Each structure stands twice: as C-alpha cells, then as structure tokens.
Amino acid sequence: MERPEFHNINSYNEFSKYYWYRSELEKICKQLGIDNTGTKQELNYTIMEYFNGHIIKKKKSKPSITNIDKVHLDTPLLKCGWIFYFFFITIKKRVN
Asked: Which residues are bridge partners to 76 per DSSP?
C-alpha cells in the first residue's frame, strides 16, 4: 500500500496508519507552522493535536548564556543554584 502525500490525509487515524520518519514529521510540522521540535513521539502528538484542532505553537528558544562580567567563587554555575565555592567547602569538611 502506497502512502499518500500528507496534504491528502484528512484525519489522524488515517495519518497513523503509515510509517513516518522523524525528519518527515519535522518537515510536516514546519509546513503547518506548528512546533517542530522534540522526539518522534512528541512530533506525532503535535500532529495529532493539529488534526484535533488544537494548534501547538512553535516554542521560542531562550538564550541559555547569561552575560556575566566577572565570575566569583559564589557565582551560580547552574540554574539550580549549584555554587562552585560551596561544593569545595563541603568536600573539605568531609576530608577533615
């Protein structure tokens, strides 16, 4: 059975009958203007929601690098608040 072009598919039930590569799902999502990031399973979910009338908009990427003029021992290195200085104080206490 030959797979039809995506634009000829009218429902998610019909869409899910065929095998789609992740790269194809990403391309379909880009063409539809919906979120095209994530795993294959997430892209399938996004397309399912599209067929159900729920549009999942593209995620805006946030810059992950913060501009810091000077780095100090108490400068947080991770968003969770882990601090270089406190890590070594804890290690030093364990050794002594």
From this structure: 83
Hey, which residues does 83 pair with through a beta bridge? Answer: 76
The structure tokens listed for 14 are 């019909």
11: left (phi over 0), alpha (psi -120 to 50) or beta: beta
CA proximity to 40, closest of 24, 17, 59:
24
Residue 46's Cβ-count burial label (10 Å; 0-12, 13-18, 19+) is buried
Asked whether the whole model's pTM tops 0.85, one would answer no
Per run of 10 residues, the mean pLDDT along the chain (length 96 residues) is 91 96 96 93 95 86 63 64 56 62
